[in-house]
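Example 467, ligand adenosine monophosphate.
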Amino acid sequence: MRDLNEKCAVFGIFNAPEIASRQAYFGLFALQHRGQEQTGIATTDGKKIFSYKNSGLVSQVYTEEILKKLVGSSAIGHNRYSTSRGSTTDHAQPTIINNTVAFAHNGNLPSTKALLEFLKKNKISTEENSDSELMAKAIGFYMKKGKSLPEAVTLSYPLFTGAFSCVALSHKELVAFRDPRGIRPLVIGKNGKETIVASETCAFRAIGADLLREVLPGEMITISKNGIKSKILARAEPKFDIFEFVYFSRHDCTVLGKSVYQVRKNFGKMLFEEHPKIKIDIVVPVPETSIPSAIGYSQASGVPLELALNKNRYIHRTFIEPAQTGRDEKLKMKLSVLRSVVKGKRVGIIDDSVVRGTTSKPIVKMLFDAGAKEVHFMVASAPVKFPDFYGIDTPKQENLIASQKTIKEICKFIGATSLSYLSVDGMVKATGLPKKVFCLSAFNGEYPLPIFEHEKEIKYDSLKFKD
Ligand code: AMP
């Protein structure tokens, strides 16, 4: 069965003599939350591309020895959670093509038809390739023909039909580019002479760099010894995935000029404003993503915040493995309830999202078992009714609980006293940005980029209009 996975992280650094691979290591370490299955770094000394990729967490995969062998003053790196083609190390990134280019991608191409046709026409094998590898091959094809990396990206760009925030490294240049909707994040920063590109701003702070700006949707940035150049490859139609605010991004990051922490606090405030009648004695976050929302709720409502769910800090996000087996057991290892805090109380529990409902159900039970009088489950985002095709490997639609059940039915299923969600408009309002800049497809089924053959997997039935 497909599971709910995280998106990937990309990182790139130019002009960091002696320390490029180390800086990439620290950057990827800061971006660990975006992908925990595999990690890879590729560097260049201007003549040769060196790389190392393996399965596991950043801190486990690399050693001093390995980093020393990754020589050169420029590097790119990737943390991966399989969004396509399974989870073997075969598809770990960066992808290297003929000692010419190293390439790393965050996102997903819902259809690779155009790319496949192009590669086949040019007699390039495509068997068993992930969407990211096909993209790398197209760029490599043009470079083999004598094009520079930015020229090769410009020529291949129309073949990339989907969501992508990418970094690519040649012997001379580091290139970063985003799809015209800018569905996945990508930022550019500076640290003295070093120029850095990363999925999120937290990677900059890890190495002492400062944010310059975002790579714009539809933009390609070329970093070379001649400086930083920008080229617009397609007209921007920004549709940033609001799920980055809900769950993915680290709360110490800035996205679209907004503090993720502040936006999450606003989600909590809006949750209270939209459901003012819920009577609770304490508000408890499900650690850790929803902590800012619980703070926001507490500040808006005056209900005391209690950290009555304790997370074992050595367990990473529950979704590490793609297989469902043992999830409940893992949740128990991950979370424990402070009985004395919840006993006899009307508990308001806040989670950032409910996807399958498989996390919420055991949490509600744990709270009742610990003596809670009532458990009011409050979700700091809207019901997830539609699968994602842009870089999160969400379950099929039939496994998204809100596409199958009404809110009342979900409440019964998870065993809570009440269940409330934030509205889509409430989420948008909390960001302080206009609705039109967001991809809200998980919540409203409006896919801003064609999803091609996946269209037939989606049901837009009456449930969408019930709640
Ligand atoms: P579920 O148990 O399927 O309802 O998933 C909801 C829980 O998973 C919430 O506690 C979220 O914090 C977390 N979550 C939401 N989206 C994702 C995702 N794409 N990857 C991993 N965890 C997620």
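Summary: Residues 4-6, 247, 286, 289, 317, 319, 351-360, 392 surround adenosine monophosphate (CB under 6 Å).
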